[in-house]
Batch of 4 targets.
Target 1
Amino acid sequence: MERSNETRILEFHLLGFSEEPESQSFLFGLFLSMYLVTVFGNLLIILATITDSHLHTPMYFFLSNLSFIDICLSSTTVPKMLVNIQTHSKVITYAGCLTQMSFSTLFVGLDDFLLAVMAYDRFVAICHPLLYMVTMNPRLCVLLVLASWVISALHSLLHSSLVLRLSFCTHLEFRHFFCELNQMIQIACSDNFLNDIVAYLTAGLLGGGPFIGIVYSYSKIVSSVRAISSALGKYKAFSTCASHLMVVFLFYCTSVGVYMSSFSMHSVHANAQASVMYMVVTPMLNPFIYSLRNKEIKGALKRLLGPKL
C-alpha cells in the first residue's frame, strides 16, 4: 500500500461544537464561566476541608481529593478550547493532543475510582459504625487514594503507548472539543485492532469494576438502613449518601454512555456534546451538590468566608 499519505503529522484540528462565527462569543463566555465556577467552587471545598478541623475525617479527605481531580479534569480540556475560540484557531499539535488525551484518561479514571472509594467509606460508616474509625484509618485512606492514582496512571500510560504506534493521515479533524482516546483510535490510518481490544477490556475492568463496587456497597447500605427502626435514623443514614449518589448518577449516566457510543463514528458530533456533561458540567456541579446538601460543609464555608456567606 502507498504510504505517502501516512506521515508523522504535526497537528490536528479540533472543530468543537459549532463553526458559525456568531456563536463563538457565546460559547467562549459560557465555557469560561463554567470553568471559573468549577475551579473556584472546588478550591473552596478543598480549603474548607483543610482549614476546618471538623472536616478532618475520611469522607472529607476523599471529597477534597475528588475536588482536586475535578479541577485537573476541566483544566485538561477547557483552557485549550477557550484559547482556540478566542484566537479563531482549531489547531492542536500532535504532542499537545497526545498529552491532552493522556491526562483526560488519567483524571476520568481517577474520578471513577474515587467514587468507588467514597462508596466504600459510606458502607463502612453505615454498616459498621463502631469499627469506622479503626477501619478507615489514615493509613488506609492514603493507600486507597494512592492505589487509585497508580492504577489510573498505568491505564493512561498503556493507552498512550498504544496510540504512539498508530499512523495518522494528513489533514486530520476531530469533530470534538478535545482529543478523546476513542476518537484518536478511530481516525488512525494504520491497524487499530489492538487498540480497540484494549479499550474494550479496560473499559470493562476499570469502568465496570468500580461501578460494581458502588452497587454492592449501596445494596448493603440499603439493607442496613431498612433494619433501622426509627424514621429519623433512616433519614440521617440516607442523607449522608445523597450527595455521593447524585454525583455517581451524573458521572456514570454520562461518561459510560459516551464512552461506549464513541466507538461509532456516526455519533461523533453527539458524543462531543454529551462529553461536556462529564468533562465540564459534572465537575462544576459537584461543589454545589456537596455544599447544598451538607450542613458540615456549609458551616465550614461560612467560617472560611465569613458570616456574610
Note: Residues 94-127 form the longest helix (34 residues).
Target 2
Amino acid sequence: MKAGLGGVIVYVPDAVEAAAFYERAFGFERKFVSGGNDYCEMHGDVPLGFVQEDYVQKHLPEFVKNRSGAHPAGFEIAVTSKDVDAAFARAVQAGAAPVTEPHDMPWGQRVSYVRDLNGVLVEICSPWTTS
C-alpha cells in the first residue's frame, strides 16, 4: 500500500495567531478553526495545520518547541511563489525574520528563507519542477 502526504502540522503556542500570521505574511487562507481554537487549518494542496502546544501535550510526550530565539528545528515549510522577491518582502513586512535574501540556485530555482513568528524556518521559493 502506497502512503501519501496528508498534511503538515506545526505545534505552536497560539494556533489562531499562527494562522493569522500565515495569512498576512504569505497570503494563505484559513479553512478551519476548531471550537476551542486549539487547531487551525489552512487551504492548500497539502494542508498546513497549527495545533496549540498545550493541547498536543495532553496526547504526546514532550517535544522541542519552536521559538524565535532558539535555533530552528530540523525542517522547513516551503512556500512557493512565482515572484520570490515580492513574497519575501511581504513576509518580512508582516513580521517574518529574514534569514537568506532571495537568490538563484544552480538548478534554476529562486529561493529565500525567513523564520515565522514562532521561529519556524520557511523557504520562499519558485515552484518546484521535476525536469
Note: Helices lie at 15-26, 53-56, 84-93.
Target 3
Amino acid sequence: MTDTLTLIARLTAKPDRAEMLGEALQSLVSPTRAESGSIDYHLHRDNDDPTVWILYENWRSRADLDAHFQQPYTKAVMARFPDLLARDMELTFCTMTPPRP
C-alpha cells in the first residue's frame, strides 16, 4: 500500500454558514466511502472553532482521489464553496510511514 495517499482538508465556513457547510460535507460521506478507491473518509469539526470542518481521507492512490473530485456529488458541493467558505480550502497531502520494528 505504498501508493496510499492521505488528504487532510480544512474548510473554514463563513460564520453564518457553518451548519450549511457541515450538512453539505456530510452529504459526501456515504457516496465517497462507496467509491472503489476510498479506504476511509471521516468528517470532523474543530473543537475550538465551530466554523472549521476537517475531512480526513485515505485513498488507494492519487488517481483515485482525482476520480473522486470528478464525481457529480463532489462537484455539486464544491460549487457551493464560494457561498459557504470564508477562505480557500487548506489541503495537506501526506503518506503514512510504516512503524519501526
Note: The two ends are 18 Å apart (CA to CA).
Target 4
Amino acid sequence: MERDIIIRKRDAVATRATILAAAHQRFLRESYDSVGLRDIAGDAKVDVALISRYFGGKEGLFREVVADEEKPRIFFEPKSVAELPGFLAQLVVEDAGEDLQKRMEMFIIMLRSASSPKAGEIIREFVHRDVLDPLTELIGGEQGELRANMLLAILMGIGVLRTIMMVDGFTGDDDDVAECAERFRCLFAAALTC
C-alpha cells in the first residue's frame, strides 16, 4: 500500500503576515520585555525559528510592528512650512475610524514598551526618522528642532485625549469639523511662531 504524502505549499508572505499580526497583538497587551518569541510563535502557530528567519529576532520583529507601512513618510507631505499648520489640522480632524484605531493601538504599543532600553531605542529612532527629522527640516531655522518638538507634543496630547482617554469632541457636521480644523490650524501656526 502506497502512502500519500501531502506537501503543503509554503507561503512566506502569509506566514510573515501571521507572525506580524500575532506580535502586534502580544505587544498591544504586554510590554516588550514581557513578550517572548515562543509566545508569538505559539500564537501564530509557527516554529519559533521562522521569526528569526523573517525578522532577525525580537528587535527586528518589534521594529516591523511599530513601522507604519501604510503612511511611512506622512510628515514629508507638506512641502513648505506655510502648509504645515493646515496639514496638521487636517490630520487631526480627519483622523477617524480605522485610522484612529490603528493609531491608538500603535500609541499603546509604544507607551507599553517605551521603558524598555531596547524598545525605547527603536521607538526613539522611529519618532526621529519619521516625525521629528522631517518636521525639523521643513521648519528650518535656528529653532526648528524646538518647534518640531512643540508640534509633536501638541499632537501627542491630542493623541492621548482621543486614544487613551476617549475624549473626542472634534467630530460633528461639516461646519463643526471646519471650525475645529481652523482652530487647530491656528494652534499649530502659533506653535511655529512663538
Note: The first helix runs from residue 12 to 29.
